[in-house]
Amino acid sequence: MVRKTPSHTSPMSPAAPPRFPILAWVVGLLLVGLMSTLFALSLADVREASAQARHRFAAPNFEASATHAAAVPDFALTDRFGQEVLLSRFASLDYLLVHIWTPDCDTCLAELPALAELDHQLSQEGRAALLTIAVADNWERVAPALSQGADLRVFLDPEDRVAKGIFGAQQYPEMFVLDKQRRIRARFDGSRPWNTASVRQFLAQCAQN
Q: Percentage of residues in the chain with pLDDT exceeding 90?
């Protein structure tokens, strides 16, 4: 009698999962984490820069609540060449900067070169204009200061009719930002580094808010 030797067949072991999908999953997870970290860092930088800009330009001399529902009424002032110019002449521009100063103010005189550079940059961009209003009795008082801002568009307001009557200026220098509808969107008291790109961007943002 022939005995049948039982076959020693071991149960089939499950195949080991391929390593590539796991590796790809791990790499993908690491990349997502890295991108999230970089995005968070960049967002923090943007927020910090915005906070610094607000701190630099807003407090304490920036009147954020300076928005007026009504448009500034049209007015006419005379420039240094004797030409009368209306505010409505600049109606096609996106926004206007109205800077009010007096030749008796040392701070006003010191920032005229920076204002001249700002005016030059705005003229090249073609979206805005800077109007400087000198509060003085006559051009003889203003003339010595014009050498510091030779290219500025300067208008004379001898009776404070525009400076105080329309804009309510209280101390000099003051800068007003008017949007396309000629509403006052912001007011700055005191001097600023007007000739920097960051300030130009900030002023444009004020006009859009």
A: 47
pTM: 0.69
What is the Cα Rg of the chain in Å? 32
CA distances from 197 to 46, 125, 161, 178, 204 (A): 16, 12, 32, 19, 11
Q: What is the pLDDT of residues 176-193, one digit of tens each?
A: 999 999 999 999 888 888
Tokens 């509403």 sit at which residue?
183
Q: Going by C-beta distance under 8 Å and a sequence separation of 6 or more, which residues neighbour residue 209?
A: 67, 185, 186
Residues 6+ apart with CB under 8 A from 103: 109, 134, 136, 141, 142, 144, 145
Tokens of 34: 């890295």
**141: exposed, middle or buried (C-beta count within 10 Å: 0-12, 13-18, 19+)?**
middle
Write the CA distances from 156 to 42, 80, 110, 133, 135, integer angstroms: 47, 8, 19, 6, 6
pLDDT in tens, 47-61: 343 344 444 444 444
Token look-up 């070169």 returns 113
- The SS3 assignment for 189 reads strand
The residue count for the chain: 209
